[in-house]
Amino acid sequence: MDFIETWNKDLKKLNRGKVGAPYTYPECLMVFLAYLHVLLNIDYRGLEGFLRGLSKLVSFDVPDYTTICMRVNKVVIEIKKTLIPYRGKEVVISLDSSGAKVTNRGEWMRQKWKVRRGWIKVHISVDDQNKQVVGIEVTDESVSDTKEFENLIKQSVDNVNATGGVVVQANADGAYDSNDNFKVLESHHITPVIKIRNNEGPTYRSKNPRKGYAREFRESGYRGWRDKYRYGKRWNTEGTFSAVKRKFGEFVRATKVEHMFNEVKLKNLFYNAILRHDKTHKPFFASLV
Length: 289
Fold this sequence. Notes:
Blueprint: H1 2-5, H2 7-15, H3 27-40, H4 44-55, H5 65-72, E1 90-101, H6 106-113, E2 119-127, E3 133-140, H7 149-162, E4 166-172, H8 179-187, E5 191-194, H9 209-229, H10 236-248, H11 257-280
Parallel strand pairs: 1-4, 4-5
Antiparallel strand pairs: 1-2, 2-3
Helix pairs in contact: 3-11, 4-5
């Protein structure tokens, strides 16, 4: 229970420079409750009851469920605080997206009553060493993969650099094959390993970096190109999606869109924190604040 040990220190930090009524409960307590909420699917009244039972063993002030709801839905965790440090290593990342359900009522309800609530789209980049998420964006289903590519690359570069590493290669499937995406990777000095969707003949006079990779892809053939760049590492994203869904569930409990997006982010970042804790044994909740 990290939040007990750092209660006063965290409150002091949280209230420094705050205008209006000061916070009564530390952020590390809310991170702890957010973890229980997304991992065990405990509702906010249940979380209050859990804390009241816990307070009989270790004395502390217990927030009501309304306060818990408001604070948990606003919990924000920085990705770099959840990462296992790279310490000078070269990092290969892979990008992909997957869906998250907005309800747990199943497909029967949707088909029977013609109810369509849509779904959430999770865009992530995953490293090849620890299979941890180094970049994440959550959108609705209408946003294309390639639209979030530049943002994911920037996040990945910043977060990996912050923990001592450097991104040297980015893997992605044909959905990310666009001139702009190749230019983004070139600007960051990252080797693009994006499957080319079309094998049209390259224009040798073009300055677009995609042309050179398209020519190499065509001349080497898919298998030769795949083996050279170890394109199979792209499947790291699928393993991370699967692990997060199996551990935290495929659907969200929140009802507001912005809270849904935040809940999905928390699931992925708590998964990161679990990987880091297993390897480094750092304090789990206090270190995320």
